[in-house]
Amino acid sequence: MSEPGTPTRLIVSADSILRLPRHIKLRHDAGRGRWIILAPERVFEPDETSVEVLKLCDGERTVGAISTLLAEQYQAPVDVITADVIEMLQDLADKGVLKS
Amino acid sequence: MSESTVKETKTGEFVAEVDTSCARAPVGLLAELTHRCPLQCPYCSNPVDLERANTELSTEDWKRVMREAGQLGILQIHLSGGEPTARRDLEDIVEEAARSGLYTNLITAGVLLKRERLEKLRDLGLDHVQLSIQDVDPENADRIAAYKGGMDKKNDVAKWVKELDMPLTINAPLHRQNIDNLPAIIDYSVKVGAGRLEVAHIQYYAWALKNRAALMPTREAFMKTAEIVNEAKERLKGILVIDFVVPDYYAKYPKPCMGGWGRGIINVTPSGKVLPCHAAESLPGLEFDNVRDRALADIWLNGQAFEKYRGTDWMKEPCRSCPRKEIDFGGCRCQAFALTGDAANTDPACSLSPLHEEWAAKATEESHTTDIPEFIYRRMGAAATAATE
Fold first, then answer.
1. β-strand A34-39 against B265-268: which pairing, if any?
2. Residue B132: enclosing H or E segment and its boundaries?
């Protein structure tokens, strides 16, 4: 790996292509009947919608494409969905859960 | 589509937050693999009576604990010590933990690690490295740890962790003898590529309690660190997550120690004793089961030591009628016992404790002393020697 240089904040937009880094684990917690994200000294508990979004963060789709997909699925206005998805992903990116 | 939300729970040794929805099984297991350590930090969280190498669990014992932890529904394992890399079978333990579905966290001082070993551990499933530093000033760091040349080794380890594409946390215990370097500690963490920094003011039990007068910062110095951390959190958003553990001597309410007794964290000592917290052996009247004799799940659910202070039924006033009783659980049982003689009393860190004023005044006095005592370093038998001098 090359020198990391000055680290910068990942700003999530409709054009962002995101994925979970190797050390972040989205998994179903069967014992407690819920989905969890395992991260360094953290456990995140995403709700159903967030889990759907995160599963679509595959390093190929853009955030915009994910939002369009969900907007169709839920028959909801795409701009509303996009804003919500970006907000949720930005929050997780700030906590180190996502990378571009 | 409803608005999406993601709930966050901290699982670390000192920053655990536990919510009731996951109270059936602990979220985190603190595995003290050994009490051996080349460093001698005077605020070590290990008990004053350190367990000797010849009492340590075998490789097979630890592997069974990992399997039982996975079956119990534990999510994260903190491989700690002493210095966990002093165990030559760390690889076997990590491999079994990963195989059991546990998120594996190595809590290390780093000085014994080699790059090859770290790479091997990563390949066997190690998820995260937490590296402690004693200061960013190498000479002062050496003096605090009573270990020569630690900083160079830690720099190497931090570099290797990043080269190996693993997440890195820097853990910096804070006290009056390094507190002025907090801004440099934050800069250092960014420079080495850490994603997380744990700035932990010392918690005064065990070794730290013996050294309190040498470690306690003034209230003013503490307040300044809170300001520095808040500013850095904002400035470094998306770059460095900072967890700040406050000194409870200067808090209004006590911390919810371990996220509540027997609620979220379980601790296994080097010899296999299962504790509700790593300092629980300082309390009288508790019986500690051993993983050699009894299943982890049974101990967690039914063990006498876990039942003793689980929930709120054991509480006395002012806790019993307090609206915060399920927020902070009356604070820390070990601190309550050490300072009041009764573990069921309110932790004197709470401003509602009748002893709070007197206790806070003593801490304040110590924090202003100009005649700073020498450290009592953490080593086998050191506490006994110091007590008889």
1. unpaired
2. strand B128-132
Are A38 and B75 contacting, i.e. CB atoms less than 8 angstroms apart?
yes
**Is the predicted pLDDT of residue B384 greater than 80, yes or no?**
no
Question: In angstroms, rounded to a whole number, what is the distance separating the alpha carbons of residues B236 and B174?
Answer: 20
- Count CB-CB contacts under 10 A for residue B17: 16
Beta-sheet pairing, A58-62 with A17-19: antiparallel
Joined together, the tokens standing for residue A82 give: 């996009």
CATH of domain A17-94: 1.10.10.1150
Distance CA B133, CA B142 (A): 10
Longest dimension (CA), chain B: 70
Q: What's the whole-model pTM score?
A: 0.93
- What are the DSSP calls for B282-313, one per residue? GSTT----BTTTS-HHHHHHH-HHHHHTSSST
Per-residue pLDDT of B299-320, as tens digits, reads: 999 999 999 999 999 999 999 9
Q: Can you read off the two tokens belonging to residue B325?
A: 């009783």
What interface predicted TM-score (ipTM) does this complex get?
0.90
**Distance from the Cα of residue B109 to its chain's centroid:** 13
Distances (CA, A) of A8 to A89, B191, B243, B317: 16, 12, 19, 50
Chain B residues touching chain A at CB-CB below 8 Å = 1-12, 15, 21-22, 24-25, 27, 73, 75-76, 78, 103, 105, 127-128, 130, 162-163, 165-167, 169, 190, 193, 195-196, 198, 237-241, 243
- Indicate the residue of B22, B169, B196 with minimum beta-carbon distance to A32: B22
Q: Which residue of B has its CA nearest to A73?
A: B1
Query: Measured between alpha carbons, how far is residue B122 from residues B129, B153, B276 in Å?
Result: 10, 19, 29
**CA–CA separation, B273 vs B350, rounded Å?**
30
End-to-end CA distance of chain B: 70
Q: Do A41 and B12 touch (CB under 8 A)?
A: yes
Cα B165 to Cα A73, B118, B193, B195, B371, distances in angstroms: 36, 11, 10, 12, 46
Please, what is the average pLDDT of chain B?
91
Structure tokens at A19: 């994925």
Q: In the 8-state DSSP scheme, what is residue B21?
A: G
CA distance B251 to B379: 31
